[in-house]
Amino acid sequence: MAPSWFLPFAVALSCFFGLLRGSPGDANSVYQACVQQCEKTGCVGNKCFQHCNFYSNENSTDGPWYLQEPLYVQWKQWDCLSDCRYHCMLSREEERHKLGHRPEKYHGKWPIERMYGIQEPVSVALSALNLAVQFHGWVSFFILVNYKLPFTPKKKTYYDYTGMWHVYAIFAMNYWFWTAVFLSRDVELTEKLHYSSAVALHGYSLFLALIRAFRVRVEAIRVMVAAPVFGILTTHILYMNFYEFDYGWNAMVCVVISALQIAVWAAWAAQARHPQRWKLWVVVFGGAVSMLVKLYDFPPWWALLDARGLWHATMIPLTYLWWSFVKDDSVWMTSLVINKNK
Q1: In this model, does residue 226 exceed pLDDT 80?
Q2: Which of 54, 122, 55 lies closest to 300 in space, CA to CA?
Q3: pTM of model > 0.90
Q4: What residues contact residue 22 under an 8 Å CB cut-off, 6+ apart?
């Protein structure tokens, strides 16, 4: 199951995005003056915001229901400061574009136009597609092991890692769900849920890598492996959420766990003779290319698609191939056990 290191390792790169809180765009004096003026007047040029309790004619927004914002905007909880930052960013980037300058980052993010209150619409859509592919892969795996492959006399699957892959699917789908939510609206709660789900996926994937690569079948040994991994994982998540949300420390933890997973799977791949290992190499090399794209971190195309969104797009076919390898492994291991018992 060598490809199971890929998603967590790629997810590790997302931990670094939290490090980029300050950027050249928001440090610019023109942008800062725009935000300060907007917070006082509630307007950027001819655009005024209800959150700042002003219209263009300076009347309060405490009016009838038909003058209030649509529900699809209200649920995003855009406040005065966030609206001012967003529209000052657009105004500043429009000026820079006229002067022939490249886009700059603001508060750690590229200037991406939102739609219907969604902060990064293309990345959200691609995250949702990744969630759908994960769900499809898990369901097809579930059908395979429960309805197409033979059972033991005790009515259990011959594949010893069935339950673990079910749990893994839950962690992976949870990660993509909160990624979509976080990219839809970046607030403290969604940020914590996004990063916590990423770390949870990392920790469980490391545990799965150790169990699968070393073919640990004794339940007591699995518990001994799980105890320190889950203990460290839980401590880290509690520290990040209830003591200090340290982006640098979180990035370090992500990298260390990813490095351990790569080492485990590399050792396994060096001696394994899996009949479908070509899928592994496609995932490995395809994943390497997609991670390079994400590290390049180019300005968004058409103000909608940036490097992270493109990385999400490449993850869709790789995830499909990944689950295909998981299913092949279950068939292969089942046939090995049955042939051995004959």
Answers
A1: yes
A2: 122
A3: no
A4: 107, 108
